Amino acid sequence: PQDCPSKQDMQSSLRQVHKLLSAHEESYLQNLRTLRKKLSLLQSAKPNATCPNIDAPASGRKLGKVHHPGHEVHFLCDLGFELVGSETRQCRANLSWSGQQPVCRDINECASFPCMNGGTCENEVNGFVCICDKGWGGSTCQSQVPTSASSSPQATLSPAIRPSHCSQVQGTTHCTCDPGYTISGRDTTVCTDIDECELFHTGQAGRLCLHTCVNMAGGYRCSCPSGYNVTRDGRNCKDVDECATRQHNCSRDQLCINTYGGFQCVRVYCPRIRNATYAKTSPLRCERNPCPVDSRACSQAPNSVSHHFLSVVSNMSAPRVMFRVSAVRVIGDTLRFSLLGSHARRHFTVQRSDRLTGQLLLVSPIQGPAMVEAEVEMTELEKRVQLARYITKVTVFVSQYDF
């Protein structure tokens, strides 16, 4: 004969099962309430009913073709124009659009008064033109135009060569150059352009430009790779959030994840595990359906699988905490954190930060561009017997740049 569990052990097991079932019941009730709201909205609308057609603004475009209740359309303006009105409009249950019809207004580049030394600014589409006063020239009237007859003819052959400005002081000739130019050798009447990109490529003050330096006559400008904009200081690069500005091509069943220099369209699927089924309870989380009482294989499967996406720059310094996983409440007497799979151990490890929290730690830099995945497992135990498992899948998108 075999020993039967005591009444106390049976009652303890039943209490644990009851707690698990209560938690699942609360989750499903919440999902059911959300579903009922959506069904009520759909039932209140007439079949095939749509909001009136809505056009894209002039010098802009519209994103979204479905005009049924609950659906949204988004608007973007062409380069050189700014949006005035509603960026997003939703088709309401009464078949009318929310917000106001937007228009794309030409950005007035003259508003910042770019023309110097008395120049007059004329606004153009995606730009401006400066009409300079006599004696001044350049794109913003920043350079003085020499008028002396002694100017060297060769100084007008190239924008990289300009005549100097000379004056007599106590019988001695002193010549100077415009900003960005220097005296060309022994000929003090000719000034040549200074290549700032080459001269200041490296130094104690660092590079002139974070990414690429382009030398220009009398100066320089910085450029950034695709997916970045030049910052106001003209030297650094700022990532463009294509997801927030709706400059992406992700479908409605995909999530747009902004990355440094671009974006990623991802789909989240629930796991397919034998003897266990899952339901998506949020865009990033799947929970296991209740298991049959006699199914041990089902009870050993993860109770939930969550997905998280991180965007980082290339060669980020390590060690560094990338993500934390915490338990809201603990049913058992032990909480264990671990890193699944061997591939992720090249760059990550998992360590406990406190009793209820584990953290994913980056232990070695990652050279981009790359995509690295890590799975963190949190397990609840009672007297070394597994009560529940929770899987967190962390996907890290690494940029090809270090900014």
UniProtKB/TrEMBL annotation:
InterPro entries: EGF, EGF-like_Ca-bd_dom, EGF-type_Asp/Asn_hydroxyl_site, EGF_Ca-bd_CS, Fibulin_C, Growth_fac_rcpt_cys_sf, Nephronectin_domain, NOTCH1_EGF-like. Residues 106-142 form the EGF-like domain. It is found in: Secreted, Extracellular space, Extracellular matrix. Keywords: Calcium, Disulfide bond, EGF-like domain, Extracellular matrix, Glycoprotein, Repeat, Secreted, Signal, Sushi. Disulfide bonds join C77-C104, C132-C141. GO terms for molecular function: calcium ion binding. Residues 49-106 form the Sushi domain. Belongs to the fibulin family. This is Fibulin 7. It comes from Denticeps clupeoides (denticle herring).
